[in-house]
Amino acid sequence: MPEPTSDASPRPPLRSVVVVGAGLAGAQTVAALRAHGFDGRITLLGAEGVPPYDRPPLSKELLTRPEPVWLSADLGVDVEALADDVRLAEPALSLASRPDGVVVTTARGEVAADAVVLAVGSVPVVPPGFSASSLLHTAADADRLRAALRADDGLRLVIVGAGWIGAEVAGVAAGAGADVTVLEAADAPLSRQLGRDVGALLAGWYGAAGVRLRTGAAVTAVEGSGVVLAGGDHVPADLVLTAVGARPASGLLEGTLPLDGRGALLVDGDGRVPGHPRVWAVGDVASRAHPVFGTVPGGHWSAALHDPDPTVRAMLGVEPAGTGHAPYVFSQQLGHDLALLGLPTTAGPDASPVMLRGTPGEGPWAALYLDPAESRGPDDAPDGVATVRAVLLVDSPRDVGGVRRLMSRGEPLRLDLARATDPAIKLKDAAR
């Protein structure tokens, strides 16, 4: 087994690792440890009581998949075969970090190890006064929502939040015969993720899919009979689903590790937690340093899938491979496919200028988010070339692979804007 690298002096080889979290990031960590030659003891702690599964299909394929996409079948990652001690219904409660190892406490007692990888995932945000609402975050949540939709063909469903999950469930539920209303406090759907102007281009999708969308509709409380809006209006519902975001499930780390306002850990490009040589983090809890995009907050599906491998390589002293990957989010909502690659700035004075490639509503199109520090638009770009911080692809699934490769080269993506905004020219042919 390779010896781990060190920030200061050499340390003894790792002989035991505890992985906290049995989702995609945790399972990928276990798989990477074995793939890179770790033959010591691996303990995996989970919270849901079920084997690792892929979370995005819970909303995208709510009614077409009666059970989760198990990672043992989908990725060939069988944690029961790879880890020595698998405790899927034993969440970690606290962590003690010391220079020569860690101790993780659960309800059953303490788990000591030479190192820990925190793959704790996230928890949904539930505002005060929303306790009567339903959520869609776990396989059990999906089972309950699926049963409700199938039991009542005319179910009045109110969804609070027009983000990724809210939009995905809205389309699925409306297609199943539910009477769906989506309430969004912002001026446009997905405004936080895509920016107000780009998000507004998606608003028409709701009506076309048979869903009522109300923007500028802030919900103050959820009741058994519906929701109450900030202005006092009452929107009746048989079921209310809250989908207003998630935050890292990092409560067990409070007082032990430095958390930011979101509850995330700032880690280096390898997933190391500064000042804690035996603590590593991947997935939702890790705000990771990136050579091109700066600090990338957790929550991207691609981070849970890909970051465990370089983290494990760094732990074990294995030579790194490749140049990393660009953040990637995909969505299937209201009859459309979306893929967001990169990291746009969507609000404030430093928001990324946006240029469109193609015409929304007339087939596939894309939004190019320019680097705000470099250019306020094409007229400011020297020689018509600008750095692109993110690309949103709409109804262009065949282009996703090519754009991912462009944005994952380990250097900023520079595009000739005149060529990049011409749908007849491939984006790779506009790269400079």
Strand residue percentage: 25-35%
Report low-confidence residues grouped into runs of 5 or more.
1-10
Distance between the termini: 42 Å
* Integer average pLDDT: 93
Shape: globular
Taking the sheet with the most strands, its summary is: 6 strands, mixed
* H/I helix tally: 13
Name given to the CATH homologous superfamily of the largest domain:
FAD/NAD(P)-binding domain
CATH topology of the largest domain: FAD/NAD(P)-binding domain
Q: What number of domains?
A: 3
The radius of gyration is 22 Å
Describe the structure.
Strand 20 and strand 21 (276-281) form a beta hairpin. The chain folds into three domains: 16-123 and 246-316, 3-Layer(bba) Sandwich (FAD/NAD(P)-binding domain), CATH 3.50.50; 139-242, FAD/NAD(P)-binding domain, CATH 3.50.50; 335-430, Enolase-like, domain 1, CATH 3.30.390.30. The longest helix has 13 residues, at 139-151. The protein is 21% helix and 31% strand.
Summarize the structure.
This protein has 432 residues and is an alpha/beta fold.
Q: Strands, helices and their partners?
A:
Blueprint lengths: L15 E5 L3 H12 L5 E5 L7 E2 L2 H4 L8 E2 H4 L4 H4 L2 E3 L4 E7 L2 E6 L2 E5 L1 E4 L3 E3 L14 H13 L4 E5 L3 H12 L3 E6 L6 H4 L1 H5 L3 H5 L3 E4 L3 E5 L2 E4 L4 E3 L2 E4 L3 E3 L16 E3 L4 E2 L2 E6 L4 E5 L3 E3 L4 H6 L1 H9 L11 E6 L2 E7 L11 E4 L7 E6 L14 E10 L5 H8 L5 E4 H4 L12
Helix pairs in contact: 1-11
